[in-house]
Design brief:
The protein is of the alpha/beta class. Helices cover 35% and strands 21% of the residues. The chain is built from ten helices and ten strands.
Amino acid sequence: MKVAVTFPSAGLQLAGILFTPDDHTGAPLPAVVVSHPGGGVKEQTASNHAERLAREGFAALVFDAAYQGDSEGSPRGLENPFQRAEDVRAAVSHLSTRDGIDPARIGALGICASGGYVPFAAQTDHRIKAVATVSAVDVRSLLVEGLGRGQGPEVLQSLLDQAGAARTAEAKGEAPAVLNWAPEGPEGPEGPEGLEEAPTLYREAQNYYRTPRGGHCNSNNEWPLRSIDHIAQFDPYAMIELIAPRPVLMIVGSESDTAYFSREAIGKAREPKELFVVDGATHISLYDQDAHVVPAVAKLADFFGQHLTA
């Protein structure tokens, strides 16, 4: 079963979907907040994972981040990690006040960029009893330093100059300057061979977000350039040890070029913690490909089932 919900986050109304087991009639359910990737919306991989968790006996809440999808906020598409973490906390608050949900048994799952936002929120929100991620990334490192960390500090300074100019332009009534999350077409920005040498993540992102495979009308592939002055100061795993003694599970694909984010985060976390590797999976195959999503969700169901106990 699923039902549309709304709830507030820092003065903005967020739109969500609550998935529950079809046959549930008994005691209050354990619940999981599922937070979507940067550039994504609730109807994509977040709902795919949430629906599967509901089949395993959990209530699962997906929602559009503030400024994105069906949720409120302007400029549209703004990616503010601190607001994104607040949205996770707000989702926990919503679940904590709903009939049929056990407020003492709430966990959270972050996918891609939310694999940074969810652990960050959980560091200070003790209501989140168990923390899991799938294909986690540190969005600051991804966008500022570049995948694989090939960009120098001068790139950040240039982006911050552009962000300041974008704020001034917006103040004059001009449309926000935007960048794309994923290449719009398979040819990439450099011509027919443009994506052949790109990291796997970007080739996969184009195939998922910009095709019928995973595309959605509310996922418009744009983020305002001035998001970078929020993103630049965000360090999701700097204090990840604060989650302990609550458990952390991070799931990656063996072929994912973003797996190093999770490996480094797990290295900083305190026990109990686990890095779970899905053999043959890539970053985005863990979004929607049954061969890789099925074992990932089985692990998630076992993890939340073990730690969200009555």
